[in-house]
């Protein structure tokens, strides 16, 4: 009993003495910077300090202003070079089409023999956009026809189990290269023949790109009716395109002023027009015969 009583007295004496509080695991930073060594700033205080320090630093302001001026100058240079090589306003003119124009133009490309008036219409010495003038060239139909031709080529090769990404890419690049070469040849011919006209690269690209419509019809007919149908469609579309090119270049594109020059110049213009028209069936055949078997 005495031993039990003594143990109890010692135990109560130890409980009466207060133990020191353990150190906190994290410092209290709710009031800003901690007064203890190694304290961290309050959330958001470092961001505000950095922003204030950056705005108050003259060198930082100069650097920001210099960077903004460089970016603005670079943007102006890009726009200047773009307008130097490609006129956006002129490019918009060739895409100013609507559904009615596209339908009538496709019919004109396939059946051009009944069309009478081939002159491009003007309003205050400015040519009317394609949606208001059927004779005006456009780039919408050539662009969409080129894409359709590439897709149709892939389908034709797939039906014949000859499809591969390399072959499809070769068809697209070959068709594009032929058109570029044709446009360059026409530009060179116009330069050598000293033809005075309003023809631009966009005009020649539009007239050269209309052949994709005939190529699509020829391939579709070949897939449906075999090689005999292909050659019949090739003959029809080629003759229609030749007639369209001759009438368009002679009347709509070159204009009546260019026909009133000396006789040798008129002959050069005629030869150039006939050469451009006669070249169309060869390109159509070269780009489509391997798709129909």
From TrEMBL:
Q: Which GO terms describe its cellular component?
A: COPII-coated ER to Golgi transport vesicle; endoplasmic reticulum membrane; endoplasmic reticulum-Golgi intermediate compartment; Golgi membrane
Q: Which UniProt keywords apply?
A: Endoplasmic reticulum, Golgi apparatus, Membrane, Protein transport, Transmembrane, Transmembrane helix, Transport
Q: Where in the cell is it found?
A: Endoplasmic reticulum membrane; Golgi apparatus membrane
Q: Name the residues that span the membrane.
A: 139-161, 167-192, 204-224, 230-249, 270-288
Region annotated Disordered sits at 1-33
Looking up PANTHER family in the UniProt record yields: PROTEIN YIF1A (PTHR14083:SF2), YIP1 INTERACTING FACTOR HOMOLOG YIF1 PROTEIN (PTHR14083)
User: What is the stated purpose of this protein?
Assistant: Has a role in transport between endoplasmic reticulum and Golgi.
Q: What is this protein called?
A: Protein YIF1
| Lineage, highest ranks first | Eukaryota, Metazoa, Chordata, Craniata, Vertebrata
């Amino acid at each position: 009993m005495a031993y039990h009583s003594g143990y109890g007295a010692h135990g109560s004496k130890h409980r009466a003495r207060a133990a020191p509080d353990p150190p906190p695991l994290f410092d209290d930073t709710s009031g800003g910077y901690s007064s203890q060594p190694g304290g961290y700033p309050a959330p958001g205080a470092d961001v505000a300090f950095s922003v204030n320090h950056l705005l108050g630093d003259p060198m930082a302001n100069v650097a920001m202003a210099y960077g903004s001026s460089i970016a603005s100058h670079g943007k102006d240079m890009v726009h200047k070079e773009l307008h130097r090589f490609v006129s956006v306003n002129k490019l918009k003119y060739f895409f100013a089409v609507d559904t009615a124009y596209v339908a009538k133009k496709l019919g004109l490309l396939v059946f051009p023999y009944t069309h009478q008036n081939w002159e491009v219409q003007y309003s205050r010495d400015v040519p009317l956009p394609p949606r208001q003038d059927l004779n005006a060239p456009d780039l919408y139909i050539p662009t969409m026809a080129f894409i359709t031709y590439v897709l149709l080529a892939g389908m034709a090769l797939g039906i014949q189990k000859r499809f591969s990404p390399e072959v499809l890419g070769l068809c697209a690049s070959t068709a594009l290269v032929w058109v570029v070469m044709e446009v360059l040849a026409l530009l060179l011919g116009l330069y050598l023949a000293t033809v005075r006209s309003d023809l631009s690269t966009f005009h020649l690209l539009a007239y050269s790109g209309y052949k994709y419509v005939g190529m699509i019809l020829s391939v579709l007919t070949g897939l449906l009716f075999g090689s005999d149908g292909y050659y019949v469609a090739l003959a029809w579309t080629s003759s229609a395109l030749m007639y369209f090119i001759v009438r368009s270049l002679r009347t709509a594109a070159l204009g009546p002023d260019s026909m009133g020059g000396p006789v040798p110049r008129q002959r050069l213009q005629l030869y150039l027009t006939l050469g451009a028209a006669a070249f169309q069936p060869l390109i159509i055949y070269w780009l489509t015969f391997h798709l129909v078997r």
